[in-house]
Amino acid sequence: MSVIVTVTLVAGNLGLIFLLMTVPLGLRTVTVSRVIKADRERLWQALWPFGSDAGWSGEILSAEPLNGDGTALIRLSWDGRDGRPIERKARFEDISEGSRFSMTVIEDTALDPSFWADYRETAEFVPEGDATRVTLTRTDRYRGLAFLVFRFFAMRRELRKLDVWAATGTYRKGGWFEHPLSQIGFAVLSALILWPFFGLNIGGLALAAILTSVVALHELGHMAAFRLTGHRRARMIFIPLLGGIAIGGRPYDSRFEVAFVALMGAGFSAFLVPVLIAASGLASTEGHRLAAALLATLAGCASLFNIANLVPVWKFDGGQVLRQICPGPVPLALASFLLLSSLLALGWRAGFSPSFLLIAGAVFATLSLITVGSGVKPRHELKPIKTFDRLAMAGALLAVFAIHGYGMLWASAQLM
């Protein structure tokens, strides 16, 4: 890619990440409404946490009043970090039986109370002939568009599923967005969006497809780590242009778990890179030059993408691993400096120009500033990492870095 195209792609991604994760939006209210062909009382009994059909979606397991001031303890079907259902303490206000109620969250067993400081939800039920208009409202303080957009579509889905439940008496889990076929479609779309950046020819399409495959393999590594650490459910979501994200089935329980899951994205590919190198060499020996070149390109893209994910940026895998295994701010700063220096030196050895490496360093620094502190604070501190686990993760990080570093240098030598 030319310098202009590279700068455009990088700047576009940085701007999109800022909009999605960081831009302060202040207090915002999302409202979604739907007319459902059902009696108002029946819908009230479904959405009112103390209603006879409050478990219609399987989300609410039980709701118990705590005292006379409108507070209640709600047990949810979502797994907490200990594998048990999350419990939420909520306060109900502005209650008009069968017509309206509002709820604020005081605290729960998963997130720090500050997360719920500005949150308020309201449900309203208005008869319209033989149907009922159900209106859901959520007010909260947002940083970045991502969670605001997510909440809008989650509310739309809730009302759509309520409509189906009212008509059939059955709750249907999941949806089209996370369906495997939809995710395959998003992956194809991602490759097509990247295609022009690599040139509108067969070679450019191959590079776009290879990069998309590398992203998928990286996220599969995270998913495997989630499973190994006890997450009963884990899924991957493709986001065109930005890549993909693996989502676990419960909050993290320990610092070791955070480090292990973060490292396994690149760790999974570290097992594949030597195989790809060997396969490319074998194909070259047998005279299959095109296959050898494609395998070498795949090995090089996998190495470059995964080693870039190990940079010590706040939300990148490398940054997450270092924050868990470094015992204090000084070791963290030193380890971050050494890791970033090693990455830049590796890029110089692989043939990248000094100006490109300076731009890359500036981009990484910008990303770190954009995403710092953007995580959600848990209700309780994560379990500390043991000394042996700390050393084991440090050794694994060095091994993964070395494997991908070798793969990057080998591929650059083969393809130049």
UniProtKB/TrEMBL annotation:
The keyword Kinase belongs to this UniProt entry's keyword annotation: no
One BP term from GO: proteolysis
GO MF term set: metallopeptidase activity
Transmembrane annotation, as ranges: 6-27, 181-198, 204-222, 234-252, 258-278, 290-308, 328-348, 355-376, 391-411
Reported cofactor(s): Zn(2+)
Family matches, as Gene3D superfamilies: 3.30.530.20
Family in the record: Belongs to the peptidase M50B family.
Record-given protein name: Peptidase M50
UniProt source species: Mesorhizobium plurifarium
